[in-house]
Amino acid sequence: MIPGTDARPEDSDRATLLDRLGRPLRSLRVSVTDRCNLRCNYCMPQEEYVWLPREELLSFEEIAQLVEVFTSLGVEDVRLTGGEPLLRRDLPRLVRLLAANPRIRDLALTTNGVLFAEQGEALRDAGLHRVTLSLDTLCPERFAKLAGRDSHAQVLEGIAAARRLGFPKLKLDTVVLRGVNDDELADLIEYGRANNAEVRFIEYMDVGGATEWSFAKVFTRAQMLERLGQRYGAITPLRENSSAPAERFRLPDGTVFGVIASTTTPFCRSCDRSRLTADGFWYLCLYAQAGIDLRKMLRAGAPVEEIAARIASIWGARTDRGAELRAATGERGVLVGIEQLRKDPHLEMHTRGG
Ligand code: SAM
Q1: 210 CA closest ligand 1 atom index
Q2: pLDDT over threshold 70, residue 8
Q3: Which distant-in-sequence residues (6+ apart) come within 8 Å of 74 by Cβ?
Q4: How many CA atoms, within 13 angstroms, populate the side-chain half-sphere of residue 31?
Q5: Which pLDDT belongs to residue 14?
Q6: How confident is the model over 297-327, as pLDDT tens digits?
Q7: Whose CA is nearest to atom 14 of ligand 1?
C-alpha cells in the first residue's frame, strides 16, 4: 500500500487472479463466529437465532490453512469479523497464526468494541495491524434501544483503548438510520476528530438479516453530504485510486470522513472482497444466495493445490455484482424473510461476516 492511504501502486509484485469483470482476489473477510453480544436492529433484530453447530466451526489452524491458500492466490488484506469476533475464545492465538503469514499486508479487525478494552492489548501484541470499531451513536439511551443491550460505556472504553494502544488508522463505522441517528453526523465527526479516528457513515443495507429494512429508513449518501455541508461548508471529495468501500471526503478544516453508499451508489465494479464464514463457506458477494463449502474439502484431506485450484477457477468465473442488481430492483424490500433465514443461517449478515 502507499503509506498513509488505502491506495496501491499500479504494479503489484503479486500474481493477480482476476474475475470475469477484471477484479482481483485481494481482500478476504474471515468471520470467526456467528454469535454476537449485541442485537442491533438493522442486523440482528431477533433475540434468538439458529446458530452454526460448534463442531462445524473451523479451528484456528484450519482458518490459517485456508487463509494461506487465499494469500498464495493474491489475497493480501485479511479482516477478522463476525458476528462479534471478540466472542471467539482466544482470538489472539488466531491473530498470531495469521500475523506469521508474510503475504498478509493488512491484518485488521472489525468489532463492536464491547470487549475491546479487555482484549485489545493481547490482540496488538499478537500482531493485529488495525482495528475498525462500530459506533452508531453517542447517546447511551439511543444505543440501548438500537443495539438491544446497555453496553455503550464499554464501546467507548474500547475506542479509548484502541487509541491508547496506538493502533494506526483507527476507523469508526456508523450505520446511519433515518430518524434514529441521522442527527448525530456532525457530533460523530467531532468525536472522531477528538479521538484521532476517521468516521465512516454507512447507508443502511438490505442485506440478509436486515428484516426491518425499508428504503424509507435509509439516510442516503446525498443526504449525508447535504447535512454535513450545511454544518461545515464545502465538502471536497478525495481522489483516490482505491478499492476500499468508502468514498472519502474532506471538510474545509481538513477533517476527513468516509461514506459507504452500497445501497444507493454500489461499488461492485471495484469489489475485490470475498468472505469466509466461521464454518468454512466461501461467499463471493455479500448478496450471494449460496457459498462454496471449503471446510468439506479441507476435512476430506484435499491437497492444498486442489483447494487452490478450486478457489482460482471459481474466482476466475465470478460475475457477482449483488449490490448493483439490488439497486436496479424497482420495488425494493427485505432481501430474505425470517423463515428462509431460519432454514439457512448462512444468508444472515452476522454469519457471512460484515
Ligand atoms: N460485530 C462487529 C461489529 O459490530 O463491527 C463485526 C460484524 S458487523 C456485521 C460488521 C459491520 O456491519 C458493522 O459495522 C455493522 O454496523 C455493519 N452492518 C450490519 N448490518 C448492516 C446493515 N443492514 N446495513 C449496513 N451495515 C450493516
Answers
A1: 23
A2: no
A3: 14, 15, 16, 17, 24, 25, 26
A4: 28
A5: 54
A6: 999 999 999 999 999 999 999 999 999 999 9
A7: 134
